Amino acid sequence: MLTKKISRLGLVILLGSLAFEFHAQTTSVFTTGLNHPTKVITSADNSLLVSESGTMTPNTGRISIVDRTSGARHTLISGLPSGVSNLGGPPDTDGTTGICLQGRMLYVTNGIGDGARNVGPGLEAPGLSPSSPIFDSILELTLPGGYATLDSSFALSLADQNTLAGGTSVVLTNSEGKQLTVRLVADLPDYRSEPRLPLNPDNVRASHLFGCEIYQKDLYVANAAFNLVHRVNIASGETTTFVTFPSKVNPLFGTIGGPFVEAVPDNIHRVGNQLLIPLLTGFPFAPGVAEIQAVSLKDAANQTLIPGLRSAIDVLQVETDGGAPSFYTLEFSSNQLAGSPGRMKFFSSPDATPEVVVPVLISPTSMTRDDSTGDIYVINIFPGTITRVQFP
User: Whole-model pTM?
Assistant: First the structure.
């Protein structure tokens, strides 16, 4: 899971009326009570869709709808795959991760849950009894009309998950008589063999799908554990590797960590004919190693767009008045080894000196922008909140 690469921050979280001014932006807690939120996107009827990896109870992943004006939350669908994982250290929940929307078709990626387990420093093994048959999968949800304003939610059962694993779609009905269809697009392997010879020949590396994007007939899915992006045909589920990100040189080698650090792609956004992908990078989370990559959808050629970041977790491209692109970046932490909070930066161009827009965010993982107001909504995984950043 991604928290294998990012440490839980040992911080005191203030949830009350946290607000502050910075360069005329107003930042405030907008929504609370989310269960380990991982991704946020804008959707119909002035709403947000938020994926949540769930509680410590298995199969409590869910998708919530949040009103963009009031911050009120209600459940769209519950019962999605999740499980208690110890891959990142202490037991933590892992379930629903990436979401991407095209019309009323919502695509959902699921994490590894308890499909794999930690058996020693840097060592992994298959899960003993996975809570879900469809961990590390991609689901297609056909949403009903007016889904953002429904008064009741949908629930997926474990029996439904088994039906999906068998290749049959499931039709869910809520108390209003509305229907939502769930189809399994692809069920990827939970792990791959990664022997550690000579002592651990059966070692595996757990997969972890963490973000998705749509282009034409395919999904592009970031795998944070395998350091690559899958291309998945929506109709057939055929899956290929679109681009792989090599490890980077560790500038702190000799002081802490090994000679290389892994890339760790987490979010993914399509802008025109390219994908923007933040690379968080792994331990020891050295300064300046994380970056934003631009990957061509035509030939998968990739290059660094914005270098010099720390624990990069998301990026947004916006257009300035002159039409040139500018960027907001999100960092999970400004210094993970020191337990520092995350932050949001603004780049007027990829090579410009950044401005820190929000200096304190508690474990942020994803952001989205309301283009009609300019407000940016940031989700924070461990406090289970949404932060709204308002601009004059």
Answer: 0.94
